[in-house]
Write a structure and sequence with these properties.
With 782 residues, the chain is α/β, with parallel strands linked by helices. The protein has 4 domains: 331 residues, no CATH class; 132 residues, no CATH class; 169 residues, no CATH class; 90 residues, no CATH class. It is built from 28 helices and 8 strands. The N terminus is likely disordered.
Length: 782
């Protein structure tokens, strides 16, 4: 599958999903191709030419680390490093070479500026071994090379063997993939900023036989960065941009491993000018005016190519293993430092990453005077705002208002503060993430959960999902399209807001179609936050029978507002939460209920909200049964909750969506069996799933279902577009053409569809993690 230029976001600087601005070229990247310049007056190496200034520094380095005379340095090693070098400061960098340490030994390393097309991606690449081995066996009838030998030797059967390994690895991880969000963002970052982090690697002795060998600079860590950069340079230019083994070609299509020589380096440097590219890759001359002329006229393709052309690389030329370790162990330990458990501190999880971004966004708003330091202390959890409502309290009267204001400050595009949201977008862009409303909402939802007191709580993910998805929508975010400014009302008494909402409802000609007024919208938003954060609802317990001593038997039954309704529990409609509360705001009955929801979370110890009319507990399912659809013209729900008499109506049984929620208990007492409603007391032995054998069968069936879904998704990901979308004639259309765009890229998936699955997937992950931890604890006790 070949990515098409038209889909490259980085070629369109105005693209809304670009994660960063382009880094300037002048003064940041070398803007001239390398030149091979042997020193005059120096003795020639064994290949007949003196070393360059860099080559001489490499010889001194080699002599120092091996305890030999510099003249004993293999000429091929000198030329290998000269071949990859770009920039005049590398000789000084080599003189600053140092020994680094890992758990297996020492490695002698210098950090150089290198030309990426001359660097070879790793041959020994354990991360791809399992998949690449199968490809090598089936396609090439050869094995991978798994070991780096003594003296940093990589031993192959032939030059073609090494090339085949490269192709197999590229089949496992397609460098030019530009399909998924992560792949696009990674490629965009390379094209807009270059390879930011240093690549690691060694000058390896590539050995076939004594007569067929030569040194070559390869990565050990940085395979993806180098491969993707080379691949995208090649696609932009329409030429091969992997030149590291150019000197192995014999002219008849065959290959021979040989060292670089002055002639092959000069030939490679000529190729690096890419004179057959569709644009001028480098300036035509080496004068300041020539460089400036190129800069003034460079196309986005040319600029992206130059940014990907160079990188900083830690090049090693020697290792000293500790006792009982090998050269390979030292190289592998260097390669594994960010990829293997125990070699590096735990990387940030998604929650930690979002929290870092959120704190940066808020600090920027404080610096620009959109927020006070007192408000920041609340957002960061340093100051706790009580639940109980107090109009005299500063900076916020209640926790519900404070939680709501986190999202208002960072997501809502308020005309009264026209530049505030622009600051948020600029900060996200500076953080190299999509500067979109969804990203803004996702980033700061973690702070909203912190203000609500949810840090470390099992419901945190559900809360942030509902808040982020709701606030990124125009119905809450884009005040310019609303009747009035609802954000100015959230600090008022809830009774005052509700009274205003009733007046707006009475003034509307049609409760169903009239735009919501500012009071109606403010009440709906506060109720959404209050219901989602209310601890009495998050920790709600349902009575399901009696214990042997006659006391009520309860199970935890979380009933706060979630994104779409906990997977259809209770037969409710899978409608996003903001739709439910905004529908309620179009009815006098609904306004009364929204007011009661806010009031229930505005007391010292929040309570379960009760319907003012009937006294029922307003659990999430109860609200969804009434307000998933729009109200009728009389302000009443179009669909009443027939037969819904309270929590007992939500116990397991036949689901309205056709899915089976598990077997009923033979005792006649139904207990929820879903992962988000665990039974915390002793299990009922009458439950068939309490038997270990039946439990194992159920888990295996669950895993089989997940595998089937994953396989189905993999098939869907490969569906090509039709002839019309591909822009080809019907008779020329070949559905097997690997270059055809995929439907998932061209047509995509509605974000609403994706969002409605988030919570279900998270519940599944939580269930599996809980089970694994329990299993490990059980094994440890044996």
């Amino acid at each position: 599958m070949v990515a098409r230029k038209s889909s490259f976001q980085f070629l369109n600087p105005g693209h809304q999903n670009l994660i960063s601005d382009a880094v300037p070229l002048d003064g940041v990247f070398p803007l001239l191709p390398p030149v091979f310049e042997p020193l005059s007056g120096e003795p020639a190496l064994s290949d007949g030419e003196p070393p360059t200034a860099l080559g001489r520094a490499v010889m001194e380095w080699y002599g120092r680390v091996h305890g030999r005379a510099p003249e004993e340095t293999p000429a091929g090693l000198v030329r290998a490093i000269e071949a990859v070098s770009i920039g005049r400061d590398n000789a000084d960098a080599v003189r600053r070479a140092q020994w680094r340490r890992n758990h297996a030994g020492l490695l002698s390393v210098a950090q150089l500026q290198v030309c990426v097309p001359m660097v070879r991606p790793a041959t020994v690449q354990p991360r791809m071994a399992a998949s690449a081995q199968r490809i090598m066996r089936e396609k090439y009838q050869r094995s991978l090379i798994h070991e780096v030998g003594t003296g940093l030797r990589v031993q192959a059967r032939s030059a073609q063997h090494l090339i085949d390994i490269t192709e197999a690895q590229k089949t496992v991880r397609i460098p030019h993939a530009y399909a998924g969000e992560a792949e696009k963002e990674f490629a965009d970052s390379l094209a807009l900023e270059g390879i930011r982090e240093e690549v690691r690697g060694f000058a390896y002795d590539m050995f076939v036989s004594d007569d067929e060998r030569g040194h070559l600079v390869e990565t050990d860590d940085g395979w993806t960065r180098v491969s993707v950069a080379q691949s995208f340079m090649g696609q932009l230019m329409g030429l091969n941009a992997e030149l590291s083994t150019l000197h192995w070609e014999n002219g008849d299509g065959s290959l021979t491993v040989r060292p670089h020589t002055p002639d092959t380096i000069e030939a490679a440097f000529r190729e690096l000018r890419f004179e057959d590219a569709s644009f001028a890759v480098w300036p035509a001359g080496r004068t300041g005016n020539a460089v400036q002329t190129w800069l003034d006229g460079a196309s986005p393709e040319a600029e992206a190519t130059v940014r990907m052309m160079t990188a900083r690389m830690d090049i090693g030329i020697a290792v000293r293993p500790y006792r009982s370790n090998s050269d390979h162990d030292v190289v592998y330990a260097d390669m594994a430092r960010f990829h293997v458990k125990g070699q590096n501190p735990t990387l940030w999880g998604k929650a930690d990453d979002e929290a870092f971004k959120a704190r940066t966004v808020v600090n920027d708003l404080v610096r620009r005077d959109y927020l006070t330091e007192e408000q920041r202390d609340v957002f960061f959890g340093d100051t706790e705002v009580p639940w109980a409502d107090d109009p005299a309290r500063a900076p916020y009267r209640s926790r519900v208002v404070a939680t709501t204001h986190v999202m208002v400050s960072t997501v809502v595009d308020d005309p009264a503060l026209a530049t505030r949201y622009g600051v948020v977008r600029e900060t996200l862009k500076r953080l190299r993430v999509p500067n979109s409303p969804l990203q803004a909402a996702t980033t700061t939802a973690s702070l909203a959960g912190l203000v609500a007191g949810l840090e470390g709580d099992g419901e945190m993910g559900q809360f942030t999902a509902v808040i982020a998805r709701s606030f990124r929508k125009p119905e809450l975010r884009d005040i310019g399209q609303h009747e009035g400014n609802w954000t100015e009302l959230i600090e008022r008494d809830v009774e005052v807001i509700a009274a205003g909402a009733r007046r707006e409802l009475d003034a509307a000609s049609s409760a169903q179609r009239a735009p919501l007024g500012a009071h109606q919208r403010a009440l709906a938003v506060l109720a959404l936050v209050a219901h989602a954060a209310n601890p009495a609802l998050r920790e709600y317990r349902m009575t399901v029978g009696t214990n042997t001593d006659g006391s009520p038997r309860t199970v935890r039954y979380p009933s706060s507002m979630t994104l779409t309704g906990r997977g259809g529990r209770g037969g409710v409609m899978k409608v996003e939460a903001d739709v439910v509360v905004l529908n309620a705001a179009r009815s006098r009955e609904g306004i009364d209920q929204l007011e009661a929801i806010v009031a229930a979370a505005s007391v010292e110890e929040p309570v379960v909200p009760l319907d003012p009319a009937g006294g029922e507990e307003m659990l999430e399912e109860w609200l969804r049964q009434r307000w998933a659809n729009t109200s009728g013209t009389d302000g009443r729900p179009e669909r009443a909750a027939d037969g819904f008499t309270g929590p007992s109506a939500l116990l397991p049984g036949p689901r309205t969506d056709g899915a089976d929620r598990g077997p009923a208990l033979t005792t006649g007492v139904a207990v929820p069996l879903w992962p988000d409603t665990p039974v915390e007391e002793e299990p009922d032995t009458a439950n068939p799933l309490s038997d270990p054998g039946e439990w194992s069968k159920a888990i295996i069936a669950l895993v089989d279902d997940v595998d089937t879904l994953a396989a189905h998704a993999s098939v869907l990901a490969q569906i090509p577009v039709d002839a019309v979308r591909a822009g080809v004639e019907e008779e020329e259309y070949d559905p097997e053409d690997p270059d055809l765009p995929r439907m998932i890229d061209e047509f995509g998936i509605d974000p609403e569809v994706e969002g409605s699955t988030d919570e279900s997937i998270e519940n599944l992950r939580r269930f599996l993690r809980q089970g694994v931890m329990a299993y490990l604890k059980q094994q440890a006790r044996r």
